[in-house]
Protein: DUF5063 domain-containing protein
Amino acid sequence: MFDEWSALADRIATHAQNYLDGLTRLAGGEGGDATLPMLLVEVAQVSLAGSQLGAAQDVILQGNFEPATGPDPDLDGVRTALAIRLGPVDDYAEVFDPYKDTVVTAYRLSDDLAAVAADLVHGLGHYRAGRPLEALWWWQYSYFNTWGNHAGAAMRALQALVAHTRLDVVEETTTA
Structure:
């Protein structure tokens, strides 16, 4: 079973690092006019990793104990850069839990994207310390508890923004 867990941890770690790298580049302006569609790709790809965690059996740690990883990197600079880059489309409305809480809540894409990154980077701390099972436990727990919701909400908002840029076009008028 350890080999299966180890292989899954390797896959999730790759997705997590790719998301962090892509998010950092896009926050830094590398996306240009394609920032929104590229953010959609990043969130969709990391959501694939989340769905794999959701489909896997529960990861249970020996002694039900998570060893310390040390301080996580500060991602506020990435969040702030994303907020500036997203500007007027950073704020959006979302229903947090469509089964338990149907109240519409204000969200920010920059906060959602950074929250996903924070949970992923914490798991990477375990992974890089040679503790793939702890990394999987954290990623799975935080997927169900926080980052899965933030990624899903961000993906819906980003998909809507990309759709609006493609579909909400002004019809050209022709003169005869």
In short: The chain has five helices and two strands.
